[in-house]
Amino acid sequence: MSWNIRRRTRYALGRTADRWDVRAPRIKSLLQSERPSLLGLQEALPAQVDFVLSALGSAYRSVGYGRGRRGRGERCPIIFDAQRLELLCWEQRALSARPDSPGSISWGNLLPRILVRASFRDRRTGHCVQMVNTHLDHLSSGSRRRSVHCIGQLVAQSPVPVLVTGDFNAGLDAAEMQELTRTYALLDASGRARSSLGAAWGTLGSYRVPRTEGRKLDWILVSPGILVNAAGVNGLRYHGGWGSDHLPVQAVLRLPEQERWND
């Protein structure tokens, strides 16, 4: 699952639906209903990450820290079910000309942008997968292009199948997304799925009834060898509304038999 849960702000966007105390129970109910093995969050503040972990239960863990210079602020954490998945390694990089410098900014974005990368072994099958989670800039297409190039380089270097999740702030036909799908051969999970988990909703719901013609900015992309049994955007309402201005994207995946990572 990939979900921009919208950061908790001091002032809501002029509507009750944007208040965290209203949204939190909705987020909790959706997560407890779906219980994803892997979850890439965007715009999550530390207290919100703690809330998500509490909602999912003691089996879940998180990797990733704030995007700021001291590791504070919004995170793009990868949350995982540690009973199902063994964490092998992980790292966080700044999406900038200085990827190892926390809080660094380049390429036209005004705010720090990051990615979190983690590798896992499925305890049931022994198969491995690498996951990259990110939140690309909402204003600068140049920043998004440079950022997806960095992501693509990591994809190309991976010895195991790759899953890329995030709020890309771009549609699949945008030039930056085309680089991921054409140059680096990543596939949209929804387009590859054997079955759909629902209507083809846009992901930028803005707390309104989902629309099939709505903007889709959030994606799950997979390596060609990964089988997508089902995928879609979750437009279900909980407690009378939606937990974020973005809807979560979900996929049920099966890793290829031939891909293993030996220690």
TrEMBL record:
<dbReference type="InterPro" id="IPR050410">
    <property type="entry name" value="CCR4/nocturin_mRNA_transcr"/>
</dbReference>
<dbReference type="InterPro" id="IPR036691">
    <property type="entry name" value="Endo/exonu/phosph_ase_sf"/>
</dbReference>
<protein>
    <submittedName>
        <fullName>Hydrolase</fullName>
    </submittedName>
</protein>
<dbReference type="InterPro" id="IPR005135">
    <property type="entry name" value="Endo/exonuclease/phosphatase"/>
</dbReference>
<feature type="domain" description="Endonuclease/exonuclease/phosphatase">
    <location>
        <begin position="1"/>
        <end position="246"/>
    </location>
</feature>
<dbReference type="Pfam" id="PF03372">
    <property type="entry name" value="Exo_endo_phos"/>
</dbReference>
<keyword id="KW-0378">Hydrolase</keyword>
<dbReference type="GO" id="GO:0000175">
    <property type="term" value="F:3'-5'-RNA exonuclease activity"/>
</dbReference>
